[in-house]
Amino acid sequence: MNGPNKIAGVESYFQHFTDFDFEMRRISVYANLLFRNVGGETLENPEIMIQISPENAGKLSGKVLSPSLTQVFGVYTKTKNGAQRGWAFAREDWFSHGKKTGEYRIQSIEPIHLTPGSSCELRELQIDFEFPKLAGTIQIDAYILFGEVMYSVLNPICIHLYGTPQQ
To answer: Helical H runs in 41-158?
Structure first.
C-alpha cells in the first residue's frame, strides 16, 4: 500500500525510427523502449507488454530471447559476477500468440529493482510489416506492468497509410 510519501509512477517512451522499403514492400520500425521510476518507492520486476494493431499485421523481433533459449545462449550480456542480463518473451508460444493477438509480453531475465529516479530500457526492437493492401493505421503501444498496475507509454507509434505505393 502506498503511504503519503510513497507514490508509484513510471514514465516510459519509445525512441524509434521507421524505414519504408518500397522495393520489398515492407515497413520496419526500429525502437528502444525506455522507462523510469518517477515515484517514491522501488518497483520490482517489470513486465513489458507490446501491443501491435491491427492484429497479425506485424512481426516483432530484436534482442529478446525465446524463454527456452535463455539458458542456452546465456543472453547478450552478463554482469561482472556472471549473472544473466537481458530480456525474454514471457510465453513459450510468444510467436503464434503475438501473430494472433498482436500482444507480446516481455520480462527481464534477471530481477530488476527500479529505485526512485532510476531507469531501464529494452533495446533494439524491430517490428516488420508488409505493406497492407488497403490504407489504414498501424499502431504500436507499450505498457510497463508492475503486478496489477499498468503504465502506458507516452508516445505510441502510429503510422498512417493513405494508399499503397505503385509498383
So the answer is: 70-73, 94-101
Identify the CA nearest to 84 among candidates 106, 60, 64, 110.
110
Instruction: Map residue 69 onto helix, strand or coil.
Output: helix
Gap between the Cα atoms of 27 and 58, Å rounded: 9
Cα 91 to Cα 100: distance, rounded to the nearest angstrom: 13
Euclidean distance between the first and final Cα of the chain, in Å? Answer: 59
Q: Find out whether 91 and 97 touch, Cβ atoms under 8 Å.
A: yes
pLDDT in tens, 114-167: 999 999 999 999 999 887 665 688 999 999 998 889 999 999 999 988 765 554
pLDDT digit string, tens, across residues 27-85: 999 999 999 999 999 999 999 999 999 887 788 888 887 776 665 555 454 555 555 57
**C-alpha span between 124 and 57 (Å, rounded):** 20
Q: 88 has which bridge partners?
A: 65, 107
Q: Are 104 and 60 in contact (CB under 8 A)?
A: yes
The SS3 of residue 91 is coil
